[in-house]
Hints:
With about 425 residues, chain A is α/β, with parallel strands linked by helices. The first copy, chain A, has helices spanning about 5-10, 15-20, 25-40, 40-55, 60-70, 70-85, 125-135, 150-165, 185-190, 205-215, 235-250, 265-280, 290-295, 305-310, 325-335, 345-355; strands at about 95-100, 105-115, 115-120, 140-145, 175, 200, 225-230, 260-265, 285-290, 300, 315-320, 340-345, 360-365, 385, 395, 400-410.
Amino acid sequence: MSDLIQKAQLVKGTTTALGTSTTKEKNQALLILASELRKQTEFIVQENQRDIDNGRHNGLSESLIDRLVLNAQRIEEMADALVQLTELTDPIGKVMEEWERPNGLLIKKVRVPIGVVGMIYEARPNVTIDAASLCLKTGNAVLLRGSSSAICSNTALVKVIHDALKQSSLPDGAVQLIEDTSRQTASDMFQLNDYLDVLIPRGGKNLIDTVVANSSVPVLETGAGNCHLFIDESAEVQMAIEVAVNAKTQRPSVCNAVETILVDRIWAAQHLSKLISALQEKNVEIRGDTFTQKYGEDIHPVTEEDLYEEFNDYIVAIKTVESVQEAIDHINQYGTTHSESIVSDNEQHVVDFMNQVDAAAVYHNASTRFTDGFEFGFGAEIGISTQKLHARGPMGLEALTSNKYLLYGNGQIK
Amino acid sequence: MSDLIQKAQLVKGTTTALGTSTTKEKNQALLILASELRKQTEFIVQENQRDIDNGRHNGLSESLIDRLVLNAQRIEEMADALVQLTELTDPIGKVMEEWERPNGLLIKKVRVPIGVVGMIYEARPNVTIDAASLCLKTGNAVLLRGSSSAICSNTALVKVIHDALKQSSLPDGAVQLIEDTSRQTASDMFQLNDYLDVLIPRGGKNLIDTVVANSSVPVLETGAGNCHLFIDESAEVQMAIEVAVNAKTQRPSVCNAVETILVDRIWAAQHLSKLISALQEKNVEIRGDTFTQKYGEDIHPVTEEDLYEEFNDYIVAIKTVESVQEAIDHINQYGTTHSESIVSDNEQHVVDFMNQVDAAAVYHNASTRFTDGFEFGFGAEIGISTQKLHARGPMGLEALTSNKYLLYGNGQIK
Lengths: 414, 414
């Protein structure tokens, strides 16, 4: 039997014990894990160094090496995050709804773990602890498949997890790492419907697209963000400029950063030059339509491809529009249904925008940078879903749960 | 451009108008459709007759022909169902949660339509009206792909839908039927991620398995039911027998009927012979373990395959067990996580069973036959989900919805 199937069976075998463990037991296990991470820092750093050495040997870029690094500070942050996780409300066992039928059947809808989560992820080894801890907190078993470049770090972290689970009352088989990091094991995971209830890819667009296209196990998709800001005719000038600069430049590499700014032509005629200056002061390259080009220097002509592009960089497209409707239509055509914002003082325009724009998060008078589990107040984040089934938008602990109906009768027959 | 892509674009183009239509507009469209169905009964019956003639010509069995038939009575029932649907609460627009963040951002989580639903289904043409009306009620556009054996009926029904939508304020492009019923169009639908938000297969196990294995569009899976009844040591005799007979024989062909009865040996020693007689009186074939065979005549030895089998017939497996734990373990191994029931007066056994059995619906002292959207009081049913993501168990209108976060600020930046 392959290592993959063997480990899949092992994790699945722990689901009943894990799913019925108490909040106290789960939190204790997380605290033990935090303590083991601190105790075994030296061992983890040493194993991580082997990945770094291999990475340098294989010519990995310094930015990828930086993602790989686990040092004392990063391990302390991981341990801290585990302690914080114990403070979050356990969603499992919560009665979501409860009603009685005319025949006397009492129906309770309760939150339960999903079961077995499969996680396929790239470089960052901290995902190993992050994914395992979120799954354990929600009573889910997890089968991990990280990248070959982080295999020594991931193996070390899972050893630490097992050391911790053995001291806890949770089954230590609940977290397993696939050590064979060949493409074949990832493809094999796509067909593990008998063992996995969901597959979560974490990494770049290629990884996610491959999983979505090939997995017959249901996928939780955390997709790209081609986000827009629309500056309405009635937008307050200072607010519009601050929101635009923040949404573009506060951290351009992330999915909730703005890629295209749509500007009403009337507002543009008066204030666009100020917006352009403010963006250029932050070293943002501007690609604008003909109208936009009149209001500044060094503006590249915007192309159709630019409007579909997630730059993830200090680049922004600016397009002027005649109306809020044109902005809405543009966003629904070019956007990726992630995060979209309007700055406006016109009530009807705001209502139309909020209702008609199809996205996980639609903002009025705020930066799109708040689409994030922590900023939403969830206390944890599995990722930001851009699909419409199961969970949409920032996913907290509840995204790792399902439901079960409990029906209490006294002999009801049909 | 293929007919498929053209129709997919057409339905997708209606989502904004449909998603923002009011409850009143949607209900009016459903009432007009009910009236058109009644008016055009003769036309529908005549087109349906062509499918029946083709079916007979192609040697379709009489039971399949029966599934095809649309007569005046069945059309009247369809129209009635539409009127009832208008009386159900519209889930769209409901504020599910609402909170304010420390920075003053107000976050509202609201119910929205999923967008575009793809429906792949077999013989029964009434699914055309059923699927279209549930989608319209929830503001979803729908791309229908029925079977070749019902193509004339489906085409006629979609013509009636278009006639109705043209008299309503909903976009008439919102419901489209793929007329090419080759296998290729079904396969092509599996890859329509740019147009479809979800694919719902309705039909036999083969159809569902094919869609799950091959679709990169997210699937709502309505799977098989290998359901169990466990009769505990403490079970009230009369209740246990009534529940067993009902769960097996009230309608053996459906997914929530019981396939295996697990009986505690102590109860069995005293009462199993009565249970066997009661089942045999209803012409149920019994396949039992060695212990069971002692308590009746004409009992076939049960095989390992029988225990995995969804008989969907007047056949039941009976297996005796030593404990509630053995019953739970058996169900979690052989079951399909659909509907499972315990008859018991022992409180601890009931708690263990309800908590540890992994299924969409777990019953105490009731027949499994209640796992059904109407029996749950949902007023409508899309199907019974056996997957854990998005929706689990009977799916009512809410299963056809997603959510959107609306964030209201006054210039918040990060």
